[in-house]
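Sanity check

After download, print the first record. It should look like this:
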Amino acid sequence: CGPKDGACPSGYCCSQYGYCGKDEDYCGTGCQSEFGKCEVSSDNGKDYTPSSSKPASSFAYYYNCKNKMDWALTFDDGPYKYDEDLLDYLKERGVKATFFINGDNVMDIKSSRGKKIVQRMYNEGHIIASHTWKHVDISEVSTDELIYNMTELEKYIEMYTGKKPAFMRPPYGAGHDNEKVGKVLKDLGYSAAVMWNVDTLDWDKSGNVDYALSVFKKYQKKGKGILSLNHCYYKDITKERLIKLTGAEIDYMLSQGYKPVTMDKCLGLKPYQE
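Expected structure tokens:
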């Protein structure tokens, strides 16, 4: 596996030496996440019984913060190996973010490292929300698959934090016009599907700062609270690109008088199910 040989089969890790496997030798230090999974599962959750969910009293799709000078910084697709560096930086800047995480995407949430990152996000005051278990297009999967992708992830979030999320973000932004999807999410206890109004396109522009800030500046003119989309992972992400773009966004938004807020304050809703 690797740049010349391509990706490993589903569920396998690509070692630093270019071989596919499933144990620590393949999934640990040097694992190439672009060509397979990384991190060994340490907790299968079989002995954990999640709390029951009550249908949410309301459900809607949201695209901006309710207060025009609020800014919600969000990150999709974690946990990932640079999240610890990102958390260090956010702590240094005194900014709280909202993380829309997966369970089985670029890092196995059941791994010791995945668990550690999720718990740290929560313990340091960030909001944790759902981005589905496998990063699926929720408008294309069956109802059973949708329910599995939501409940499997929330089981581990609740195991690690004691909280079950009330917010989710549809991968690819899909399903916002699908009544069936909305009904399922509401019945599962979700009050908000969170979209965005500023897309940095970090995944497509390799974290280009100038492009991202141009989108912020353009949307500012509309006079609405800003809800921006960033990613913990994309194909050519580096720690430096992640921190540089995050820092540039924080510097710019603070200079414009915006207040960084977590998603509960952005929307005026409770972030976790009761």
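If your output differs, re-run the checksum step. Summary of this record's structure: The chain has a mean pLDDT of 94.
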